[in-house]
Amino acid sequence: MSSLPNLLTLSRILAVPLIMILMWNAGWAGYLAAFALYCVAGATDYLDGYLARSQGTVSKLGQFLDPIADKIMVAAAIVLLIENGIVSGWLTIAALIILLREIIVSGLREFLGGVQVSVPVSKLAKWKTAVQMIALGALILEGFAMRVWPALPAMEVGEVGLWIAAILTLITGYDYMRIGLRHMK
Protein backbone atom coordinates (compact mmCIF):
# COMPACT_ATOMS: atom_id res chain seq x y z
CA MET A 1 0.00 0.00 0.00
CA SER A 2 2.86 2.37 0.75
CA SER A 3 4.40 2.32 -2.72
CA LEU A 4 4.29 5.64 -4.56
CA PRO A 5 2.06 4.33 -7.38
CA ASN A 6 -0.50 3.02 -4.88
CA LEU A 7 -0.39 6.29 -2.93
CA LEU A 8 -1.02 8.22 -6.14
CA THR A 9 -4.01 6.02 -6.94
CA LEU A 10 -5.34 6.45 -3.42
CA SER A 11 -4.85 10.23 -3.67
CA ARG A 12 -7.03 10.20 -6.82
CA ILE A 13 -9.80 8.46 -4.91
CA LEU A 14 -9.49 10.89 -2.00
CA ALA A 15 -9.52 13.91 -4.34
CA VAL A 16 -12.95 13.03 -5.72
CA PRO A 17 -15.00 14.24 -2.71
CA LEU A 18 -13.06 17.50 -2.68
CA ILE A 19 -13.65 18.01 -6.41
CA MET A 20 -17.34 17.37 -5.89
CA ILE A 21 -17.54 19.79 -2.94
CA LEU A 22 -15.84 22.44 -5.07
CA MET A 23 -18.42 21.90 -7.84
CA TRP A 24 -21.47 21.80 -5.54
CA ASN A 25 -23.41 25.04 -6.06
CA ALA A 26 -20.16 26.54 -7.27
CA GLY A 27 -19.37 29.92 -8.65
CA TRP A 28 -16.57 30.48 -11.12
CA ALA A 29 -13.83 30.09 -8.48
CA GLY A 30 -15.20 26.73 -7.32
CA TYR A 31 -15.27 25.40 -10.88
CA LEU A 32 -11.77 26.69 -11.57
CA ALA A 33 -10.44 25.05 -8.38
CA ALA A 34 -12.33 21.82 -9.20
CA PHE A 35 -10.85 21.84 -12.71
CA ALA A 36 -7.31 22.31 -11.37
CA LEU A 37 -7.71 19.48 -8.84
CA TYR A 38 -9.36 17.28 -11.48
CA CYS A 39 -6.37 17.82 -13.79
CA VAL A 40 -3.91 16.90 -11.03
CA ALA A 41 -5.97 13.81 -10.13
CA GLY A 42 -6.23 12.85 -13.80
CA ALA A 43 -2.47 13.14 -14.21
CA THR A 44 -1.98 10.63 -11.40
CA ASP A 45 -3.87 8.09 -13.54
CA TYR A 46 -1.03 8.10 -16.04
CA LEU A 47 1.74 8.60 -13.50
CA ASP A 48 0.81 5.76 -11.13
CA GLY A 49 0.86 3.16 -13.91
CA TYR A 50 4.04 4.53 -15.44
CA LEU A 51 5.86 4.50 -12.10
CA ALA A 52 4.62 1.03 -11.15
CA ARG A 53 5.86 -0.43 -14.43
CA SER A 54 9.17 1.47 -14.52
CA GLN A 55 9.99 0.70 -10.88
CA GLY A 56 8.80 -2.89 -11.08
CA THR A 57 6.29 -2.27 -8.28
CA VAL A 58 3.12 -3.37 -10.07
CA SER A 59 0.88 -4.79 -7.34
CA LYS A 60 -2.42 -6.62 -7.13
CA LEU A 61 -3.72 -3.79 -4.96
CA GLY A 62 -2.77 -1.22 -7.60
CA GLN A 63 -4.35 -3.29 -10.35
CA PHE A 64 -7.52 -3.44 -8.24
CA LEU A 65 -7.62 0.22 -7.13
CA ASP A 66 -6.65 1.95 -10.39
CA PRO A 67 -9.81 1.13 -12.39
CA ILE A 68 -11.94 1.81 -9.31
CA ALA A 69 -10.35 5.25 -8.95
CA ASP A 70 -11.10 5.98 -12.61
CA LYS A 71 -14.71 4.87 -12.30
CA ILE A 72 -15.30 6.87 -9.11
CA MET A 73 -13.84 10.00 -10.68
CA VAL A 74 -15.81 9.64 -13.92
CA ALA A 75 -19.13 8.74 -12.26
CA ALA A 76 -18.92 11.54 -9.70
CA ALA A 77 -18.04 14.14 -12.35
CA ILE A 78 -20.89 13.01 -14.62
CA VAL A 79 -23.44 13.09 -11.80
CA LEU A 80 -22.52 16.62 -10.73
CA LEU A 81 -22.25 17.91 -14.29
CA ILE A 82 -25.80 16.66 -14.88
CA GLU A 83 -26.99 18.06 -11.53
CA ASN A 84 -25.48 21.46 -12.36
CA GLY A 85 -27.05 21.49 -15.84
CA ILE A 86 -23.79 21.50 -17.78
CA VAL A 87 -24.51 18.04 -19.15
CA SER A 88 -28.10 18.02 -20.38
CA GLY A 89 -30.25 17.07 -23.33
CA TRP A 90 -28.71 14.65 -25.81
CA LEU A 91 -25.34 14.87 -24.08
CA THR A 92 -26.90 13.02 -21.15
CA ILE A 93 -27.20 9.96 -23.41
CA ALA A 94 -23.43 9.97 -24.02
CA ALA A 95 -22.89 10.26 -20.26
CA LEU A 96 -25.28 7.37 -19.57
CA ILE A 97 -23.57 5.17 -22.16
CA ILE A 98 -20.29 5.75 -20.33
CA LEU A 99 -21.80 5.03 -16.89
CA LEU A 100 -23.64 1.90 -18.03
CA ARG A 101 -20.53 0.47 -19.70
CA GLU A 102 -18.52 1.03 -16.54
CA ILE A 103 -21.08 -0.88 -14.48
CA ILE A 104 -21.35 -3.72 -17.01
CA VAL A 105 -17.58 -4.12 -17.42
CA SER A 106 -17.09 -4.04 -13.63
CA GLY A 107 -19.64 -6.82 -13.22
CA LEU A 108 -18.03 -8.78 -16.03
CA ARG A 109 -14.57 -8.43 -14.47
CA GLU A 110 -15.96 -9.60 -11.12
CA PHE A 111 -17.55 -12.65 -12.75
CA LEU A 112 -14.42 -13.48 -14.73
CA GLY A 113 -12.28 -13.07 -11.62
CA GLY A 114 -14.42 -15.73 -9.97
CA VAL A 115 -13.56 -18.16 -12.77
CA GLN A 116 -9.92 -16.98 -12.67
CA VAL A 117 -9.91 -15.29 -16.06
CA SER A 118 -8.09 -11.99 -16.38
CA VAL A 119 -9.14 -9.50 -19.05
CA PRO A 120 -6.34 -7.02 -19.67
CA VAL A 121 -7.14 -3.42 -20.48
CA SER A 122 -6.84 -2.83 -24.22
CA LYS A 123 -5.00 0.11 -25.78
CA LEU A 124 -8.32 1.37 -27.15
CA ALA A 125 -9.79 1.28 -23.64
CA LYS A 126 -6.86 3.37 -22.43
CA TRP A 127 -7.54 5.89 -25.20
CA LYS A 128 -11.21 5.86 -24.22
CA THR A 129 -10.28 6.72 -20.66
CA ALA A 130 -7.98 9.54 -21.79
CA VAL A 131 -10.63 11.07 -24.08
CA GLN A 132 -13.26 10.68 -21.37
CA MET A 133 -11.07 12.39 -18.74
CA ILE A 134 -10.27 15.29 -21.11
CA ALA A 135 -13.93 15.70 -22.05
CA LEU A 136 -15.09 15.74 -18.44
CA GLY A 137 -12.31 18.16 -17.53
CA ALA A 138 -13.45 20.49 -20.31
CA LEU A 139 -17.04 20.27 -19.07
CA ILE A 140 -15.93 21.10 -15.52
CA LEU A 141 -14.01 24.06 -16.96
CA GLU A 142 -17.23 25.14 -18.71
CA GLY A 143 -18.61 25.97 -15.25
CA PHE A 144 -15.88 28.61 -15.05
CA ALA A 145 -15.98 29.63 -18.72
CA MET A 146 -19.70 30.39 -18.85
CA ARG A 147 -19.33 32.81 -15.95
CA VAL A 148 -15.97 34.44 -16.71
CA TRP A 149 -14.69 33.62 -20.21
CA PRO A 150 -17.59 32.75 -22.55
CA ALA A 151 -15.31 32.66 -25.63
CA LEU A 152 -13.41 29.67 -24.20
CA PRO A 153 -14.59 26.62 -26.20
CA ALA A 154 -14.75 24.35 -23.14
CA MET A 155 -18.33 23.24 -23.83
CA GLU A 156 -17.60 22.39 -27.45
CA VAL A 157 -14.48 20.40 -26.53
CA GLY A 158 -16.39 18.66 -23.75
CA GLU A 159 -19.39 17.77 -25.92
CA VAL A 160 -17.35 16.40 -28.83
CA GLY A 161 -15.01 14.57 -26.45
CA LEU A 162 -17.86 12.99 -24.49
CA TRP A 163 -19.49 11.70 -27.68
CA ILE A 164 -16.16 10.30 -28.90
CA ALA A 165 -15.68 8.67 -25.49
CA ALA A 166 -19.21 7.23 -25.68
CA ILE A 167 -18.48 5.69 -29.10
CA LEU A 168 -15.17 4.25 -27.85
CA THR A 169 -17.06 3.05 -24.78
CA LEU A 170 -19.47 1.06 -26.95
CA ILE A 171 -16.62 -0.47 -28.97
CA THR A 172 -14.50 -1.43 -25.95
CA GLY A 173 -17.55 -2.59 -24.01
CA TYR A 174 -18.47 -4.89 -26.90
CA ASP A 175 -14.90 -6.25 -26.97
CA TYR A 176 -15.02 -7.03 -23.26
CA MET A 177 -18.44 -8.66 -23.55
CA ARG A 178 -17.33 -10.79 -26.49
CA ILE A 179 -14.34 -12.06 -24.48
CA GLY A 180 -16.45 -12.52 -21.36
CA LEU A 181 -19.24 -14.44 -23.08
CA ARG A 182 -16.73 -17.05 -24.27
CA HIS A 183 -15.98 -17.86 -20.64
CA MET A 184 -19.65 -17.99 -19.59
CA LYS A 185 -20.44 -21.01 -21.76
List strands and helices in order, with pairings.
Blueprint: H1 4-23, H2 28-55, H3 60-83, H4 91-114, H5 123-148, H6 154-184
Helix pairs in contact: 1-2, 1-3, 2-3, 2-5, 3-4, 3-5, 4-6, 5-6
CATH hierarchy class name:
Mainly Alpha
Rg from C-alpha positions? 17 Å
β-strand percent reads under 5%
Task: Tally the helices.
Answer: 6
Q: Which second-level CATH architecture applies?
A: Up-down Bundle
DSSP E strands, number: 0
Our measurement of the CA-to-CA distance between the termini, rounded to an integer number of angstroms, reads: 37 Å
CATH superfamily: CDP-alcohol phosphotransferase transmembrane (TM) domain
CATH topology (level 3) name: Four Helix Bundle (Hemerythrin (Met), subunit A)
Q: What is the N-to-C order of secondary-structure elements (H for helix, E for strand)?
A: HHHHHH
Bin the helical content.
over 70%
Shape: globular
Low-confidence stretches: none
SS-based class: mainly alpha
Average of per-residue pLDDT values: 90
